[in-house]
Amino acid sequence: MIRTIAPADRARLEQGLKRLKLRRIREMLDAVSELALQEEPSYLDFLAYLVEAEVQAREATQRDKRLKAARFPMLRTLDSFDFAFQTSVSAQTIRDLATLQFVEAHESLVLLGPPGVGKSHLAIGLGIEAINRGYRVLFLTVQDLVQELYSTLADGSTTQKLKAILAHDLIILDELGYLKMDATASDYLFQLVAKAYERRSLIVTSNLEFQEWGSLFDSPATAAAVLDRLLHHAHVITLKGESYRMRSRLAPPKVHGTLPEGSAAPALRAGGRGEGGTPT
């Protein structure tokens, strides 16, 4: 039974909001009270407004927590990817992947290409899209993955560590190809790929073509087993072209001021760019 509504006691109201953990409503209490006096909404509209503000605040908090837990080395969005510079992948292809149907279907994505062509940028951008949709994401370089799993040998917690990694919906493994793995490291990577198969989504970036992966593992058989599971339900994108970082670094400096009469301006490399844009 609903009792008679009594005049509000401010201190008691704030205490109740605190107990219910309605932080956003408590923070905006004065502002929303003033707004209600001005607009005179119905009680239902006023309640809906407060609830929506609280829901949005909690979603933003959870997103920030997921973003921090993802361990991205830097933040890169798909909107900041320079498709005019990196023309070997179409914007439509990336927009299709950004629907995250591949994550929902537990498929994988493999990004191949030399250093500096945008593989990590795309991987991080898709990871941030996944976080915005409520998915749990983890970013690891292959070297970090191997080192973290090696550290579990001391206390025998390898199984627990793999389980913690596989608790994420999307796992990004960056820079496969820079580290030749021994038998233990090869087994770690195989275990992760095998356990993720048809259960979790992986994004893997590599500077090596698939036929070169045999040189990374302790045996060609392990490489074949990893590829068999990774590529069964996978999207593969091969990026080509110049390294963005090297292109920016090697571009001649701009010339300021006027040139002496008869002098010619030094030739500038076409398409030179400044800071920002597409990284590895």
Structural features, described:
- With 280 residues, the chain is an alpha/beta fold.
- The chain has two domains: 10-66, no CATH class; 78-238, 3-Layer(aba) Sandwich (Rossmann fold), CATH 3.40.50.300.
- It has helices spanning 10-19, 23-27, 29-39, 43-70, 91-97, 101-104, 119-132, 142-150, 158-165, 183-196, 220-232, 244-250, and strands at 108-112, 137-141, 170-176, 201-206, 234-238.
- A five-stranded parallel beta sheet has the order 2-3-4-1-5.
- Mean pLDDT is 88; it is low at 255-276.
Summarize the helices and strands and which ones pair or pack.
Layout: H1 10-19, H2 23-27, H3 29-39, H4 43-70, H5 91-97, H6 101-104, E1 108-112, H7 119-132, E2 137-141, H8 142-150, H9 158-165, E3 170-176, H10 183-196, E4 201-206, H11 220-232, E5 234-238, H12 244-250
Parallel strand pairs: 1-4, 1-5, 2-3, 3-4
Helix pairs in contact: 4-7, 8-10, 10-11
Summing up helix and strand content along with how strands pair, one would put the structural category as: alpha/beta
Quaternary? single chain
Number of strands: 5
Fourth CATH level, the homologous superfamily of the largest domain: P-loop containing nucleotide triphosphate hydrolases
Sheet-strand content, in percent, reads 5-15%
CATH class of the largest domain: Alpha Beta
- Outline, from the CA principal axes? elongated
InterPro entries: AAA+_ATPase (IPR003593), DNAC/IstB-like (IPR028350), IstB (IPR047661), IstB_ATP-bd (IPR002611), P-loop_NTPase (IPR027417)
Pfam families: IstB_IS21
Protein name: IS21-like element helper ATPase IstB
Family: Belongs to the IS21/IS1162 putative ATP-binding protein family.
